[in-house]
């Protein structure tokens, strides 16, 4: 250490305790970084790497960013998952003996950002802390920018815990040191969230009350870890943090990560964007608080009858009372993000503009409450009585903050006249002084007879009288003192101007100081209302979500669903709300879904592209919409409450994750089978597609039997194995339905209508024809199918039927130009293999698929 300069020694000391963060080391008007931080930051931030004399062992790498533009750079680092420790000078450099004292005043991490620039309005920014005890773990998820915090208690191994963290969309996970060390590589490579270690897990005194609702010691530990971390990174008041609310899984519909992804609840699989998701469809919220609440609700649908019913009733009231709803929407439009405004007030970074927005928001609350009274349902009455408009605070802010208050504190003109007598006096002195000066200008013009004489001001010389060169002869040399010479004018002062200037500047100085002090007092005053404001914000957010539900329901002709006590699904003319919206509504074919106690499973057959997957998703989305409290896309709908929804839908390969379709399929199926109950909904779409035919069919068969005999969950099972349709003979709960399609003039037409009974044709070759595969190939396929059918050993009646329905021309045009008649059985087999290889679409196959195929082909030739 001794070879370094004293300042670098100081830097190294601070850096030693912040190894995992970029240390922004304040030097005058810059934040500087040194050593590895400098090398890395210059690369990430694309700023010039320089060097600095570090002491006797030469120059050290350095790079820096100007103090005033630091937020932009911090944003970039934090967005990329890094942490930034802000190290400020904490004593006046003029007073310092030796190196100026410096301290880290805040650590900004992905999960603790408070800056508007770093936050997205319509999304929460979550941080999660874990406490682990064997196979049990507690997870506390909090949003520092809003003050919310929830606690969960669950069982599971590390993979489950990590999945849980990503399911909650945390930006940062806080872990004990050992867990941090063992997970850090995996977390880093998955790149979903940042990880931090915090060994302390006792609840800091200042947060003792915050954990009052938590019953389980493990939950307290997780909360303790979180609060320790917040306390040590933020180093300031966190009084806006709310009590940690324990979440019981029994009141929520469970949705695993697979299903959330498959159903595209808040983002689509393909683009990872909101557009095309259920959230996108349902979001007509007017406030950011509402938008965030809606997303929360969609991520955690309810499994409590009363609460769902109350939401549905409230949505109904808003739905039917159009004018009240429009009024509420109009008022909500004027409400700013009160939740974050309250948090910022407490955190100490609310700007004058923020308090102005808080005031405007509060002023809209009384008329919102008035509309609530008109709605006349239990939910609206409850919200009405929970909502405290804080009229006193609104009035206080009305009187305190100037209507054109600036964005920044340093810009002044924040406080309204009449709020502080002292401030008004300084302001008077300043304005009077300025008027006096204006009058002086007039007076001096008259005295000297110089009409172009003017009084000006600049920062260096203060007030001056300026006289152009041409008029210098008229200057009263006895009274005017020369101050500055310009190319075409001279500037003068007089003793009385000097004296007035002193008074004006003094007043302005005091004014700025006083304004600053008053503003901090006002913010301190607001701070006392933070819990109440948060409560109010919560009510407004809920109302906003429900008006959004009502508005969408009206626009998209949704109906109020009935929660089934009999446990049946009876949906008449149901629709997939998102598919319906993105296509012309005229073209969407609605479908009924009926599942009863005696008939709880449907086996869905039909050609590719007919609408099987859409039909299955439709049911899941309808159930979720009901369980968040929204109307549903149908003419009428009765549904039971589902405790969980499991899905295995579509062929969304997790290629990036390196898992084959078939493996993903089996993982998801396994998860469903192990966790489903009689009250669950299971959607299995074309299970077994990813493996060889017989494997796949056998698996599908036994999975259906297992669900039928062991679980009894409501299940939709789609399949392209027509062989399975005979299962309805032995499984009483199972019913065959199929999506109808017809051949018109040799072309296939999808009707998208679900009808009873099994499909008698798979139309695979016709679909291939629609996809415009080369016509010799199609002809060849028809021929092979025909042969397969004649072999007849394995094909089902359905396959035979299809084969029979396809007319194979007498003289085939062979792909290999060998006349069909002259082919020996062995040659024929080889040819079939060649044509199969030719028809493989390698780009669409996983390695496992390819292995399976190869195995099949080899078997054929042997
Ligand atoms: P499958 O799973 O049977 O292969 P999908 O459910 O993926 O078929 O549907 C294929 C396409 O058909 C969808 O993308 C959609 O455009 C259209 N479609 C599905 N169901 C309907 C419907 N009920 N009405 C109109 N179009 C539909
Ligand atoms: Mg499908």
Estimate the helix proportion, in percent: 40-55%
Structure annotation, total helices: 27
- Round the Cα radius of gyration to an integer and report it: 36 Å
Bound molecules: adenosine-5'-diphosphate, magnesium ion
User: In total, how many domains does the architecture comprise?
Assistant: 6
Task: Determine and state the CATH class of the largest domain.
Answer: Alpha Beta
Shape, principal axes of CA atoms? elongated
Please give the alpha-carbon distance between the first and last residues: 75 Å
Taking strands numbered 1, 2, ... along the chain, how are they ordered across the largest sheet? 13-23-24-25-21-26-27
Proportion of residues in β-strands: 15-25%
Unreliable residue stretches: 652-658, 798-822
What's the average pLDDT?
A: 88
How many DSSP-defined strands?
Answer: 27
Main pleated sheet: 7 strands, mixed
SS class? alpha/beta
What is the CATH architecture descriptor of the largest domain? 3-Layer(aba) Sandwich
CATH topology label of the largest domain: Rossmann fold
**CATH H-level superfamily title of the largest domain:** P-loop containing nucleotide triphosphate hydrolases
Binding site for ATP: 606-613
Family: Belongs to the DNA mismatch repair MutS family.
Protein name: DNA mismatch repair protein MutS
Function: This protein is involved in the repair of mismatches in DNA. It is possible that it carries out the mismatch recognition step. This protein has a weak ATPase activity.
